[in-house]
Amino acid sequence: MASVTAFLEGKLKLQVNSAKSAVGFVEERQFLGYRLLRGGGLGVAPKSVVRMKNRVRQLTRRNRSQRFSQFIADLNSFLTGWMTYFKLASCKGLLRNLDEWIRRKLRCVRLKQCKRAWPMAKFLMSCSLKEWDAWLLALSGKGWWRKALTPQANHAMNLQWFRDHGLVNLTERYKMLNVNGNRRGTEQVCPVV
User: Fold this and answer.
1) For the chain, which residues make up each domain, given as ranges?
2) How many other C-beta atoms can be found within 10 angstroms of the C-beta atom of residue 18?
3) pLDDT band at 169 (very low <50, low <70, confident <90, very high)
4) What whole-number distance in Å separates Cα of residue 47 and Cα of residue 30?
5) What is the number of other CB atoms lying within 10 angstroms of the CB of residue 104?
6) Phi and psi at residue 35, in whole multiples of 5°?
7) pTM for the full model?
8) pLDDT, tens digit (0-9, with 9 covering 90-100), for 50-68
């Protein structure tokens, strides 16, 4: 790095910002939320995924007293902009995982809004879940986050249920934004966050 800095500052008379400049492997460097992948394609930088998840956590806090439709409206506003910004990245696998995680967060919120066993069982039965399965989940001693991953919650609040409520699906939005032209490069490996 020192020789490059000396050349840029000495020969070309350019100023180098040492805080932002570094030498490293292509996959390790990030620029404007993107990172380069091995095949030359663009991927979403891990720090951008962490920031996005923190924002979703903030928008889906379970102690916010508002209607479920407002949760989805706030989330849609953020997710639409985020996906539009990262439409150039090769990240189908990452988006699939993020979609699943967001739906689990919303299931958790919706179950918590029921508060007690009877309203939860009533809500689950209204979502075409059998009475026995609804009561099995409603009377479960698991925490809200674990309840949101149960087969009963997944069956009651499935993908179609979220479509009916208007939730933006990142994978579908990515496909819609990238209809013209195929993305080059390798598929991004989902980082563990």
Assistant:
1) 1-28, 32-177
2) 9
3) very high
4) 9
5) 17
6) -145, 155
7) 0.82
8) 999 999 999 999 888 889 9
